[in-house]
Write a structure and sequence with these properties.
It is a single chain. The two termini are 54 Å apart. This protein is of the alpha+beta class. The protein has five domains: 156 residues, Arp2/3 complex 21 kDa subunit ARPC3 (Orthogonal Bundle); 141 residues, Arp2/3 complex 21 kDa subunit ARPC3; 150 residues, no CATH class; 79 residues, no CATH class; 209 residues, PPM-type phosphatase domain (Phosphatase 2c, domain 1, 4-Layer Sandwich), CATH 3.60.40.10. Helix 8 crosses helix 10 and helix 9 runs antiparallel to helix 10. The protein is 60% helix and 14% strand. The chain contains 25 helices and 15 strands. A hairpin with a 4-residue loop joins strand 7 and strand 8.
Length: 751
């Protein structure tokens, strides 16, 4: 079935090509300007030299039989067809590469030969000579124009010469189409408007106007009336202004401009038939699938400087991604190597007994060797338990018969002390290796993630770039260039004339075009009289923060809070309560929250952040631990994570009530390893999260604080935290027994 579909598709495509060539040949046979009518001959030469020569000859012969105006002309066409076909066959057989050149030479010789043999008067010979010249010109023009459109469409990107040749070919086709008149209906107007709208959509406005002029020139060649040039140029100019709108609206603009032109510059005779012809061509264009137009634009449009810039941007990102991946792998290998390193083992009891036997007892030699080793193991075991063996702890043999008892006790004690010191040093080294391995593994993870993000190509929105430039120009902001980068959040870079960087206008227009909210990220100078304005898309949601607090010590507080944006879309709220109050508690609290901020902004995930900061705090010689509340929320997806370590309950306020989140985890830094309480969910719009330190929570009994929050009617987060603090002070009769801090964040949708 699949092969059948492919065959049907291939057959349909081939049939369309044959019909297109046939109708083009028909129109070129009809194209004439006075007695010059050799355009079909030139098109046949171009087609035969680069395509299927036998199919070209067959179609050319059929059209010659239909349109040749005399027997002599038919014989001349037949002779030309046979000679060109034979020339192509022989050239391909001998693998001669310049087939088109030899075909032009043969075609010129045949055409001139027929002229000199069939004509006897000088004027007729001159006309045939002109026909030969126009035939060769048409062959060259058709060869260049068909090179990309028909012979090699996948690799065709038209330059100015190729576009010019296409325009000449369009003129010749329209010249022939002008000869067709079906009861006053002229298909040339339908063909012309269809071509203008298609070229404008695929290649651009300038190319569309150029095509319109080519259509008008073709009609003028047949009618000797130059009004058609102005007629189609006027239509194309008006249509170009509306080409970015919907296709029916663009067609309507072209039709209205045609009516205006006809009634203003002529008597209006025949305007209805012209209008009907234009409607047919425009309707055919409007019926084309959008995918077809996109394919045409992709195949035939010329790359702009933006394409190069985008390619360079993506190439640079790919290169940076590969370098990051290499560095990430290096850190991963280093982490694995550190994890695989094992410290030298300490001596066992049996090994220490052997050392005593070899070092002390061997010189004596008064006792049995097997008995001696067993007694030494007993001595070392006792020394390991007590640190130093006494005479009463010794085995009977060492106590009564051994002459080296005192020395054995002293050496065994020294060996045990050295063994304990070695174990301590090994433990410290193992911990250091473990910490380094963990840090390197974390660096590897973040570089790996950055490499994956960097490897994704930057996509762009060319259609909205054009629309944005037009809208800004309408509002008086002259944009020289625009680049839209599609990512998690869209970014817009504009090069505007100096003095036109009106931030309010630019952000409003950008929001209108992209149906989103934008803010100006930066305005920097460029070369000359231009400025570069960078806009970043705002997240769908925003966060309103507030904090209120008082400290027990007026000079320092142990409570530290943080509200920061840790990425383009994520924010963090944190409340850290150092144990106790005063400067020392504040120092530890500030250190902990500073480390958390730095790790999150660097891109590390929550488990790594908690583990790393906990290790840092555990390095302190004195007790340094803190109660910690952390909220991380994505303002695009509303994905939310709440992390609690040794902190009081926090509260989530919504229209449905108050949810209480408790935490049973130990404070951060209390132990070398901790397991925090983690709550992960998706937030809802208009929700408010409240964190409090124990200086406030201890003053409320049971569910009093939750009830107070539920009964609070204000949506202003600053009013909320101020009232919570005021209520706590009221419960404590105005006294401040501990540092008191309350923070809150409310999620709102951007307008």
């Amino acid at each position: 079935m699949e092969n059948l579909n492919k065959n049907v598709k291939k057959f349909t495509s081939r049939l369309f090509e044959v019909l297109a060539i046939f109708f083009t040949l028909c129109l070129l046979w009809l194209a004439r300007s006075g007695q010059v009518n050799s355009f079909a001959d030139g098109f046949f030469i171009a087609l035969a030299s680069s395509s299927n020569v036998f199919l070209s000859f067959l179609l050319y012969l059929i059209t010659a039989l239909v349109f040749a105006d005399s027997v002599v002309g038919l014989i001349g066409s037949l002779l030309l067809g046979v000679c060109i076909t034979g020339c192509v066959v022989v050239s391909r057989r001998v693998r001669y590469r310049r087939i088109s050149t030899i075909c032009l030479i043969v075609g010129g010789v045949v055409r001139l030969g027929c002229a000199f043999l069939g004509q006897i008067s000088a004027p007729l010979i001159m006309i045939e000579t002109l026909n030969c010249a126009f035939m060769l010109m048409t062959a060259y023009v058709a060869q260049v124009a068909l090179q990309g459109m028909y012979f090699k469409p996948r690799s065709f990107r038209p330059n100015d010469i190729e576009l010019g040749c296409c325009a000449v070919l369009i003129s010749l086709v329209c010249c022939g189409a002008t000869a067709v008149n079906i009861y006053g209906f002229r298909p040339v107007y339908a063909i012309g408007l269809f071509a203008v709208m298609l070229v404008t959509s695929a290649l651009g406005r300038g190319e569309g106007i150029f095509t319109a002029i080519a259509v008008g020139v073709g009609i003028s060649l047949y009618t000797y009336d130059t009004v058609s040039i102005a007629f189609f140029a006027f239509i194309a100019t008006v249509h170009a202004l509306f080409s970015g709108a919907l296709r029916p609206l663009a067609l309507l603009s072209a039709l209205l401009s045609a009516v205006l032109f006809e009634f203003y510059f002529s008597s209006g005779e025949g305007v209805l038939l012209k209008l009907f012809s234009l409607v047919v061509g425009g309707a055919l264009f409007c019926l084309l699938p959008k995918s077809f137009l996109q394919n045409v634009q992709t195949k035939f449009s010329r790359p702009s400087s933006k394409t190069c810039v985008r390619h360079l941007v993506n190439a640079g990102r790919t290169s940076a991604s590969k370098r990051m991946e290499k560095v990430s792998n290096i850190f991963g290998e280093m982490a694995s190597a550190l994890g695989a390193i094992k410290g030298q083992g300490v001596l066992t009891v049996s090994q220490m007994a052997s050392v005593l036997c070899d070092g002390v007892c061997k010189k004596c030699g008064k006792c049995d060797e097997r008995l001696r080793h067993d007694e030494m193991e007993k001595l070392v075991s006792v020394t390991c338990e007590k640190g130093r063996a006494s005479v009463g702890d010794l085995p009977f043999f060492l106590e009564s018969d051994c002459t080296q008892t005192a020395r054995l006790i002293s050496v065994s004690a020294e060996m045990v002390r050295e063994r304990e010191n070695a174990k301590k040093r090994m433990s410290e080294r193992d911990k250091l290796r473990s910490d380094l391995s963990t840090q390197m593994e974390g660096v590897k993870t973040i570089l790996k993630r950055a490499s994956e993000d960097m490897s994704l190509p930057v996509t762009h929105d060319g259609e909205r770039e054009k629309l944005l430039v037009e809208e800004l120009a309408y509002h008086g902001v002259i944009v020289c260039d625009a680049l839209v980068t599609k990512a998690t959040l869209d970014k817009i870079t504009l090069v505007v004339s100096r003095g036109c960087a009106i931030n309010e206008v630019i952000t409003q227009v950008a929001g209108k075009v992209f149906s989103s909210s934008f803010s100006v990220e930066s305005v920097s100078e460029s070369s000359g009289e231009f400025e570069v304005v960078t806009l970043t898309e705002n997240t769908p949601f925003d966060a309103l923060f507030a904090v209120a607090g008082v400290s027990k010590n007026k000079n320092a507080t142990g409570d530290t809070h943080s509200f920061i944006k840790i990425s383009d879309t994520k924010f963090m709220m944190a409340l850290c309560d150092g144990m106790g109050s005063g400067s020392e508690a504040g120092r530890v609290s500030e250190t902990a929250i500073g480390l958390v901020e730095s790790f999150y902004k660097a891109g590390f995930d929550s488990p790594f952040v908690i583990e790393s900061v906990n290790r840092f705090l555990s390095f302190e010689e004195e007790e340094s631990f803190v109660a910690f509340d952390i909220l991380v929320c994505d303002l695009s997806t509303l994905e939310r994570t709440v992390i609690k370590m040794g902190s009081p309950a926090c509260y989530v306020l919504s229209s449905e009530g108050v949810a209480v989140l408790n935490g049973e985890a130990l404070p951060m830094g209390a132990l070398g390893e901790i397991t925090p309480s983690v709550y992960a969910d998706f937030a809802k719009e208009e929700q408010t999260v409240v964190f409090v330190s124990d200086g406030i929570s201890d003053l409320f009994k049971g569910n009093e604080l939750a009830t107070f929050l539920q009964n609070h009617n204000s949506v202003n987060v600053q009013t909320l935290v101020d009232d919570v603090l005021a209520q706590a002070q009221k419960l404590n009769k105005g006294a401040t027994a501990d540092d008191m801090t309350v923070t809150a964040v409310r999620l709102i949708r951007r307008i």
